[in-house]
Automatic annotation (TrEMBL):
SUPFAM superfamilies: P-loop containing nucleoside triphosphate hydrolases. One of its GO terms (molecular function) is ATP binding. The keyword Transport applies. Pfam families: ABC_tran. Gene3D superfamilies: P-loop containing nucleotide triphosphate hydrolases. It comes from Nocardiopsis mangrovi. This is ABC transporter ATP-binding protein. It comes from the Bacteria. Keywords: ATP-binding, Nucleotide-binding, Transport. Residues 2-235 form the ABC transporter domain.
Length: 270
C-alpha cells in the first residue's frame, strides 16, 4: 500500500545543510495501523511531509498503491500536531469539516451526510454550529480528526496529534483512533515520540534512530485487538514491548557499534 524506499531528505541552508532523514525504507500494508516512534528532531515530520507529497525528498521514493507520490495524493488525509492552526477560525465546526469535501466536488447531500457521520463518530454531533475558538484543545483536535475521516481517506497520516492535550483527553483520543480505524478500515501511519502511545495504538511499531535517521527496528505488537487503557497497559506483554522499544532507542542513540553495556541494559529492563 505505502512503500517508502531509500528516503533521504537534506534541508539546504545558507550556512549549512541539515540531514533530517538519512535512509528510510519500510512498507505499510493496506489496512494496517502502524506507529512510527523516534526522538524529537529525528525527522518524523519530515518523513510524513514527504509521504504526504508536501515535501520533495532529496533522494529515494514514496509510492502509494503502486504510484509514485509527487504531490498530495487525493485519497490521503493528514492530521498535524498544531490543530489550532489547522482549523479556520471564521468557519464553524461543520464548515471546517465540509471544506475538503467541497474541494473534492461532492454533491451537497453527500457532504452533509459525511460531515454528520464524522462529527457523530468523534462525539461532536451537537457542536456543528460552534466555532473552533469556542472549543477546548481536545475538542478542536477531534474536529481535525472528523475533517480527516469525513474525507474518506484510504490512508490517514497523523503527526503527534495528541502531544498538546491533557492525559485523559489523550487516552480518549487514542481509543477514538483505534475505533475509527476498525470502523472505516483505513491504513493509518501514526507518528509519535511517546513509546507507550505507540505500543498501545499500533499493530506494529517502527522505531527510528536519532540522526542519522534510519529504521532501527520493526516490532509486531502482538497484544489483543480489543484494547483498553487499563487492562492493556497492565498486560505484562505491554510492559515487555515498551521495555524492548526503550532499550532499542537507547541502543540507537549510542550509534551503530553496540557495546556490552547496551546488551546489559536490555536484559535488565526486560
Ligand atoms: P521530528 O518531527 O522528528 O521532531 P523534524 O522532521 O521536524 O523532526 O526535523 C528533523 C531535523 O530537520 C531537525 O534537525 C530539524 O531542525 C530539521 N528541520 C526540520 N525542518 C527544517 C527546515 N524547514 N529547514 C531546515 N531544517 C529543518
Ligand atoms: Mg515533528
Amino acid at each position: 500500500m505505502l512503500d517508502v524506499t531509500g528516503l533521504r531528505k537534506t534541508y539546504r541552508g545558507r550556512e549549512r545543510d541539515v540531514e533530517a532523514v538519512r535512509d528510510l525504507t519500510f512498507r505499510i500494508a493496506e489496512g494496517e495501523l502502524a506507529c512510527l516512534v523516534g526522538p524529537s528532531g529525528c525527522g518524523k515530520t519530515t518523513l510524513l511531509k514527504c509521504v504526504a507529497g508536501l515535501l520533495e525528498p532529496t533522494s529515494g521514493t514514496v509510492r502509494l498503491g503502486g504510484r509514485a507520490v509527487t504531490g498530495p495524493p487525493p485519497d490521503m488525509a493528514v492530521v498535524f500536531q498544531e490543530y489550532g492552526r489547522s482549523l479556520f477560525p471564521w468557519l464553524t465546526v461543520r464548515g471546517n469539516v465540509e471544506l475538503p469535501l467541497k474541494e473534492k466536488r461532492l454533491p451537497r447531500d453527500r457532504r452533509r451526510a459525511l460531515v454528520a457521520e464524522a462529527l457523530e463518530a468523534v462525539g461532536l454531533a451537537g457542536a456543528g454550529d460552534r466555532h473552533p475558538w469556542e472549543l477546548s484543545g481536545g475538542m478542536q483536535q477531534r474536529v481535525a480528526i472528523a475533517r480527516a475521516i469525513a474525507y474518506e481517506p484510504r490512508v490517514l497520516l497523523m503527526d503527534e496529534p495528541f502531544a498538546a492535550v491533557d492525559a485523559q483527553t489523550r487516552a480518549d483520543l487514542e481509543d477514538l483512533i483505534r475505533a475509527l480505524w476498525r470502523r472505516f478500515s483505513m491504513t493509518v501511519l501514526f507518528v509519535t515520540h511517546d513509546i507507550d502511545e505507540a505500543v498501545y495504538l499500533g499493530q506494529r511499531v517502527l522505531v527510528l534512530s536519532s540522526s542519522p535517521t534510519v529504521v532501527h527496528d520493526d516490532i509486531a505488537i502482538d497484544l489483543p485487538g480489543e484494547r483498553d487503557q487499563l487492562t492493556t497497559r497492565a498486560d505484562p506483554r505491554f510492559t515487555e514491548l515498551r521495555a524492548r522499544i526503550y532499550a532499542d532507542i537507547r541502543h540507537a542513540k549510542r550509534g551503530p557499534a553496540p557495546g556490552a553495556a547496551t546488551a546489559g541494559d536490555g536484559t535488565a529492563r526486560a
